[in-house]
Predict the 3D structure of the following.
Amino acid sequence: MAQLQKPEWVYIGGKIRSWDEATLHISTEAVTRGLAVFEGIKGYWNANSTEFGMLALPRHFARLQRSGKLLYIPCPVGYEEFEQACHQLVHLLHKPDRDMWVRPTLYVVEGHWGEGTVADLVLTAYHQDKTPPKAIDVGISTWRRSSDNSISPRIKTNSNYQVARLARIEGRRRGYAEMILLNEWGRVAEATGACILMVRNGKVVTPPPSEGRLESITVEIVAGVCNSLGIDFVERPIDRTELYIADELSLAGTLAELTPIRQIDDYVLPDDSPILKRVRTRFWNAVRCTDPHPAVDLSVVRPAG
Ligand code: PMP
């Protein structure tokens, strides 16, 4: 069973506190209705472990605010305070042999049915291995991604992950590490916690957000990397059967990074993945700072004071 980490420190109520002190009352909307929006932010050590950089921090903050706006959840802090809090927490917890990811969550702590809504920004941070993800097998789920007129996939909110959880449970039964969700029209939306990249005829293709995927920051980065490598990057709807005959497939997400896909349902992908391998290598060299890239902006954590 997956062991969840319990880091020593978290940021809650505007301060760093111990893990055990970070609690919410059972009556809050965050508990009774699962009302919260969140982000996942990756932090990478550079190649010789002397500097720790958090990837695309301003873009993650902007998306957190957009998610909050669409659900009428106000964000109690501005960017400066947010960045400082992320740095403070990571600085307390980081270890040179591990990367980290930070989960900022806006929990609704006061209010009822959208009246008097007050949220608190909570930051938790977890260690991760520095190794790139290994290739995985994925399946296509029988569950569907919600539509823009119910809970929009554009909103990174807890409720959107109920279906993702069902798909993961279904996937485990069928022996798959990740699952692809189709949208309401039966076309490809995304995976449960990442977007999908497909290579056909030498082009990298992904569905646009209007097909039911999150407005992914990793996809934006991949578009920038493809552009600098002279690889065509296209956003267009993708049919289910196109995934089965794709030349290459990959997940794209903050935590999934660029996880290669080996098999989808019964269909095995070719062993060679020449185009996405170039993208992965360029991405990896940028986040490790051996070959910086303008699409890979890192907010470097320095000791306070
Ligand atoms: N889709 C879903 C449902 C996700 O949870 C994530 C991870 N945040 C992504 C896509 C990828 O988004 P990003 O590249 O911004 O991490």
Q: What stands out?
A: The first strand starts at residue 9 and ends at 12. The chain is about 25% helix and 30% strand. The two ends are 41 Å apart (CA to CA). The mean pLDDT is 96.
